[in-house]
Design a protein that fits this description.
The protein has 478 residues and is mostly helical. 77% of the residues lie in helices and 0% in strands. The chain is built from 20 helices and no strands. Helix 1 packs parallel to helix 7 and helix 11 runs parallel beside helix 18. The longest helix has 59 residues.
Length: 478
């Protein structure tokens, strides 16, 4: 087991106990947050024909829902910091249910944008971020494993919803299906009830003793994670935190925009999200476009979700290993690049067998990125700043999340072929993957240099303290 990462939480996370019930709640909550917009693509072709709209227009339904989920990130952060995760998740479940029930009475595509997209998207935001945040309060040593297990909820729910949605559509039509889905998503309220706040007094950290002049300081610095190194070494950020006590700064830590690792993560993710969701949104419509029947097309999403389901916890276990965790950002860079390669090769897949092969490899790639997506952010900024960091990231990422699928749908409308859409998504994933490799190499190098400088400064301080004590002893003896 790798050493525990340094933390500024002020207490020792239990790394188990009720934390596993919290992981179960996060599993359900995250599962609906990410799987719900993807599973609704089963209805796209029929809704498209019902309202007589284009590929680009129908893609806005999932796009607006995902973008609203990301745009509501800061609002969710403020509510979580103020009230905790449990009530926010339960309110989110009620909001998604309300949006789906109202959408079932929709008379136009704009009605779906507002009900499914805006109301449902905000509800999903209130499910997603609190679930991510509370894991960091319960886990420290086993955090990558816990995050990987919680993120597995997305493929499990998608694996279940994809064939279920096709059955519901055949039995009740898309309006009746939306009513039933509204009832199903109320399970998020049950998930929220499991998110009991952590007992911070049980594992209170002892007061820090003065550091001794030996190798303990070096060992402690060597075992700290990237986020802790950044917080300990970049003193100007600590100073800025002391000055950031205004109304806004109490909820959102804008000093993160001066954090080197956070800026690398944000820059790469903004480009990546232009091509992250579109291949999933258009997987079933692409299969139907090739003449594959509805159930087989829906089954592609189940295959994708099944592979995704197993790779996420596996990625969490690998990310928690002593070989990968110290340099987990490289693992994330590989996963992003692998996604890009899959999309670039997708047009070479012919027939249903080819699409099944693509769904398998895409499931592997997508699951790796999803399992690491928030763990690497927590690794960079630390658990104590994660809530603010994820809020800032999501509000900025809502732009590419909103525009990605419609732009991809526009390529299909223009060329009448899906291959150009997959080429574009491949480029949008491969370029940031390469960017992450390069920038994290320099970031790790800089962190190592700062760590050596910090250790040298500590040693000099220890030597000066010893010399001062010796001189005082000599004067006392004299």
């Amino acid at each position: 087991m790798p050493p525990a990462a340094a933390t500024k939480l002020g207490y020792t996370p239990p790394d188990g106990g009720w934390g596993w019930a919290v992981v179960l709640g996060a599993f359900i909550s995250i599962g609906f947050s990410y799987a719900f917009p993807k599973s609704l693509t089963i209805y796209f072709k029929e809704i498209q024909e019902y309202f007589s709209v284009s590929y680009s227009q129908i893609a806005w339904v999932s796009s607006v829902m995902l973008a609203s989920m990301y745009a509501a990130g800061p609002v969710s952060s403020i509510l979580v910091n103020r009230y905790g995760s449990r009530p926010v998740v339960m309110v989110g479940g009620v909001m998604v249910c309300t949006g789906m029930v109202l959408a079932s009475f929709g008379k136009s595509i704009v009605h779906l944008y507002l009900c499914v997209g805006v109301i449902g998207g905000f509800g999903l935001a209130f499910n997603l971020q609190p679930a991510l945040t509370i894991i960091g309060t319960y886990f420290q040593v086993k955090r990558p494993m816990a995050n990987g297990l919680a993120m597995t909820g997305s493929p499990v729910v998608l694996f279940t919803l994809a064939p279920l949605n096709q059955f519901l559509f055949d039995s009740f039509g898309w309006r009746g299906s939306f009513l039933i889905l509204g009832a199903i998503v109320l399970n998020c309220c049950v998930a929220g009830s499991l998110m009991r706040p952590v007992n911070k007094t049980a594992g209170q950290k002892p007061k820090t003793e003065p550091a001794e002049c030996n190798g303990a300081a070096a060992e402690e610095a060597a075992t700290a994670d990237t986020g802790a190194q950044s917080d300990n070494l970049l003193t100007e950020e600590n100073q800025s935190e002391g000055r950031s006590q205004g109304c806004v700064h109490r909820f959102i830590d804008v000093s993160l925009f001066r954090h080197r690792g956070f800026l690398i993560y944000l820059t790469g993710n903004v480009v990546m999200f232009f091509g992250f969701f579109a291949p999933v949104v258009f997987l079933a419509p692409y299969a139907k476009h090739q003449g594959i029947d509805e159930y087989s097309a829906a089954f592609l999403l189940s295959i994708f979700a099944l592979v995704d389901m197993f790779i996420r916890p596996t990625t969490g276990f690998l990310g928690n290993s002593k070989w990968i965790r110290p340099r987990i950002q490289y693992f994330f860079s590989f996963a992003v690049s692998y996604n890009g390669v899959c999309h670039l090769l997708c047009p070479l897949a012919s027939g249903y067998t080819g699409l099944v092969v693509y769904a398998v490899f895409f499931g592997l790639a997508f699951g790796m990125v999803s399992a690491l997506l928030f763990e690497v952010l927590m690794d960079l900024v630390g658990s104590h700043r994660f809530s603010s960091a994820v809020g800032l990231v999501t509000i900025i990422e809502c732009g590419p999340v909103l525009l990605g699928p419609p732009l991809s749908g526009a390529l299909v409308d223009i060329f009448g072929d899906y291959k150009y859409m997959y080429y574009a998504c491949g480029v949008f994933m491969l370029v940031p993957g390469i960017f992450f490799f390069i920038m994290h190499y320099f970031n790790y190098k800089r962190l190592d240099e700062e760590k050596r400088q910090s250790m040298a400064a500590e040693m000099r301080t220890c030597e000066e303290t010893v010399q001062l004590k010796m001189s005082q002893d000599e004067k006392a003896d004299g």
